[in-house]
Write a structure and sequence with these properties.
single chain, 179 residues, alpha+beta, Helix Hairpins, minor pseudopilin epsh fold, three-stranded antiparallel beta sheet, 8 helices
């Protein structure tokens, strides 16, 4: 995870800054072609930064609460929307493992229906900007997230992520989303 954080996430931030500078120049010059060309890099690198910023906060070592199940209002909403925490874990794990290529599995909050929903996003597409769901808990299934420890066995990585899931952080995200 250290390489993932210090190298990969840092690269998204660096490239996002470059892309937004190019976009600003293109806008100032009213160069529509350059504006359109810059958008892909802004989306990819900005999404990578957003997604990873959530991802790091969604994780904690067991000594700091990682792996402890959700409590309070979040737990009650998970039970209401999925039947149980275990049922939600099973569904999110299956969706996430099934992502073709690189992407993310998400637990999100739908403000229009006041419910929790599961979704996947390809590449670094950010959940809220692409689906309208407020991101609560994300699982990165780009190979850089797991290959060094799990090789090509994505299901083992997804299974292990639950042992370090920081449900206190997810609960705070849920509380903020429902205000």
């Amino acid at each position: 995870m250290e390489i993932h954080h210090s190298k990969h996430h840092n690269t998204y931030v660096t490239n996002f800054n470059v892309a937004t500078e190019k976009l600003a120049v293109a806008v100032a010059e009213e160069n529509v072609t350059a504006i359109v060309a810059a958008q892909a890099a802004v989306k990819f690198n900005g999404g990578g930064h957003l997604n990873h910023s959530i991802f790091w906060q969604n994780l904690a070592p067991p000594s700091e609460g990682g792996g402890a199940p959700p409590t309070g209002a979040l737990s009650a909403q998970i039970d209401a929307d999925f039947g149980s925490f275990d049922a939600m874990k099973t569904k999110l794990s299956a969706l996430t493992v099934a992502v073709q290529g690189s992407g993310w599995g998400w637990l999100g909050y739908n403000p229009a229906t006041s419910t929790l929903q599961l979704a996947t996003c390809p590449n670094q597409d950010p959940l809220e900007a692409t689906t309208g769901l407020v991101p609560l808990f994300g699982i990165d299934v780009w190979e850089h997230a797991y290959y060094l420890d799990y090789k090509n066995v994505r299901p083992d990585y997804v299974s292990a992520i639950w042992d370090i899931a920081n449900w206190a952080d997810v609960g705070e995200r849920y509380a903020a989303a429902t205000k």
